[in-house]
Write a structure and sequence with these properties.
- The protein is an alpha+beta fold and 595 residues long.
- Helix content is 25%, strand content 19%.
- It has 18 helices and 25 strands.
- α2 (71-85) runs antiparallel to α3, α2 packs parallel to α7 and α4 (158-167) packs parallel to α5 (191-202).
- The protein is globular, with a radius of gyration of 30 Å.
């Protein structure tokens, strides 16, 4: 307002907690300095860390990358914009090696290209070739590299790795090295590089790589460039690697402290109190579990969206307005001059059960909100803490057997470990063992899974398969989503055990060779009369074949299916516990009906 013009938001200009928390893009970091500081919400979860960016300075980087006339210049400007939003520590790089720094992030940059030509700034320029917490010094470093691009044809990274290693000097800070290149690293895998990489890993440095490509299409050298870069990255190497177009680089840098993103998950998700550990207070969107979210007085959990967001209370910077907001359960913290929501289930064990919305969680010795209190199936099945929907009662219940390890799972006699189940939650492989009761009445209560026979509770056919993939691989079984919780059950026709009953069912036919009742497959019917007898089949007179009526109008055609194989597909999708497997099995079932 002073200069009467619109400028980019700068959270660091806000000097008190309430106005900072009121701004949706900012976060008051209580661990920053003596009194806290306002930082960008994107980086509020950053641990104390030093980040060095190792930039490819070869001639190919001068080429156009998308709409950027020079890839090298674009990288430098992206780094400049990125650093302006970081919670920089504020200390000079010229004393970076000798002083312990308890605040924020420090950054540095190194350029590499031809053998023996790696470079960083000298003692008189910017940071003096160190990591720095001052934006003015980092800008001077970038100006230096922009003016002095090495500009050679071949990329050798050993020298750059050595210079970067010298910049990591403080053991109490997390150390991150990011390699940005479009080239084949010629010396990758050689002794000198292997030695440099080994020393970086030994010093606790996490090495990430971003392989840039000039356009959407992959160049012919992309495979070799990828293989070379993987040689210098931390394990698991694929998780420390991204290939990207230039426009993606900005998003990659801005997500370094976002535990929902690939690099951020490895940088900002450490537990405990060691180097790089999570801060005790996080920006609300970085809490992924309801109880952790609600324990933070500045946050609230949305049971509809299943996300953590800022409480409406923190936007009240006036004590009277805060106290008047009873609908959001706000209360005024006079010490910090901040409006927070009242604590939920903040009771000792002796008082916890008296609150109807709370329950005592013995494993963590803490009073928490009752879990799985969802009124709709979609919210119940999507809850990351693990809930199951009972469609017969329209009720959401806590999922049994939420053990994170095979050892703890097997210690519970009601649970078993199924390694075939791979999900986004650690407890996904631990599932309830069906039909373990010795009480006949209890056995028959779960009639979908169990049957009482020979004086014991037996598992019905197919129920022994606890995941969708192994279930559908048995030709007599299918994953039954007609009710929830979902189970593996016998296919419809297999339930007919007598030939006459089987053949009386339009959908079924008796297979004498296997002595089984099976579903009718239209393409197996070679006779026109038998084909037309089935209402879901149609006779193709031109080709003299029987087709499923849904595909009777299909022309001669080839169909290619391109499907998503990313990690997010392993989460549950509705009543399917694993989206990727559900998709594969749906394709399999569809294919069987095609002409």
């Amino acid at each position: 307002a002073t200069n009467n013009k619109c400028v980019d938001k700068d959270c660091s200009k806000i000097t008190t907690p309430c106005p900072c928390n009121k701004d949706l893009g900012c976060f008051w970091d209580t661990t920053f300095g003596a009194n806290g500081a306002c930082v960008s919400g994107s980086f509020g979860g950053c641990p104390l860390m030093d980040v060095v960016v190792l930039v490819d300075g070869t001639t190919s980087m001068k080429s156009a990358f998308g709409r950027h006339g020079s890839g090298y210049q674009a990288v430098m400007e992206f780094l400049r914009d990125w650093a302006k939003t970081l919670p920089l520590s504020g200390d000079s790089g010229k004393v970076a090696g000798s002083v312990k720094v308890d605040n924020g992030v420090r950054v540095g940059v190194v350029q590499f290209a031809a053998q023996g030509r790696a470079t960083k700034t000298g003692p008189s320029v910017g940071s003096g070739g160190h990591v720095t917490g001052l934006m003015s010094e980092f800008e001077a470093d970038l100006d230096y590299h922009e003016a002095k691009m090495i500009d050679t044809d071949e990329a050798y990274i050993a020298g750059g790795l050595r210079l970067a290693q010298d910049m990591f000097t403080r053991p109490e800070r997390k150390k991150v090295l990011i390699v940005i290149s479009d080239s084949i690293l010629i010396d990758a895998g050689r002794a000198e590089v292997n030695s440099a990489v080994s020393e970086l890993f030994g010093a606790g440095v996490q090495v990430f790589g971003v392989l840039l490509r000039p356009a959407a299409a992959f160049p012919s050298t992309a495979g070799d460039a990828r293989d070379a870069m993987l040689n210098v990255l931390s394990d698991v190497r694929d998780e420390h690697f991204l290939d990207a177009q230039m426009e993606d680089l900005k998003a990659i840098l801005n997500a370094l402290c976002d535990p929902q993103q690939q690099f951020g998950r490895l940088i900002a998700s450490a537990e405990g109190s060691g180097v790089g550990a999570l801060k005790p207070k996080q920006p609300c969107p970085m809490y992924f579990e309801k109880n952790n979210c609600n324990k933070d007085a500045a946050c609230r959990w949305s049971a509809t969206l299943l996300v953590c967001s800022d409480s409406a209370c923190v936007r009240h910077c006036d004590e009277a307005v805060c106290k008047a907001d009873s609908s959001n359960l706000c209360e005024w913290d006079a010490t910090q001059a901040i409006c927070y929501k009242k604590p939920i289930c903040d009771h000792p064990m002796t008082e916890c059960s008296a609150d109807p919305g709370c329950e005592w969680k013995a494993a963590d010795s803490v009073c928490i909100e009752k879990e799985c209190q969802h009124q709709a199936e979609s919210g119940c099945l999507s809850d990351p803490i693990g809930c199951i929907w009972d469609s017969t009662k329209d009720h959401c219940n806590p999922r049994p057997c939420t053990y994170n390890t095979m050892e703890s799972c097997k210690l519970d006699q009601k649970c078993e470990w199924d390694a075939e189940i791979v999900g986004t939650q650690k407890w996904a492989s631990c599932v309830e063992t069906p039909c373990t009761t010795t009480d006949p009445s209890e056995c028959l209560k779960d009639s979908r899974k169990c049957e009482w026979e020979s004086n014991k509770c037996n598992v019905k056919p197919c129920v022994q398969y606890l995941d969708e993939k192994t279930c559908d691989h048995d030709l007599g079984c299918h994953w039954d989503v007609s009710e929830s919780p979902t189970i593996c059950s016998e296919k419809y026709c297999r339930k007919h055990k007598a030939e006459g009953v089987c053949n009386d069912d339009m959908k079924c036919s008796w297979n004498s060779a296997d002595n089984l009742c099976k579903e009718v497959v239209c393409s197996d019917l070679a006779d026109q009369c038998a084909c037309n007898d089935k209402e879901f089949c149609s006779w193709d007179t031109k080709n003299s074949v029987c087709k499923n009526v849904d595909f009777g109008g299909c022309p001669s055609m080839d169909v290619a299916v391109v499907f998503d194989g990313s990690g997010s597909m392993s989460q549950s999708f509705g009543r399917h516990p694993h989206g990727f497997y559900a998709m594969i099995e749906a394709l399999r079932a569809w294919f069987k009906t095609l002409p």
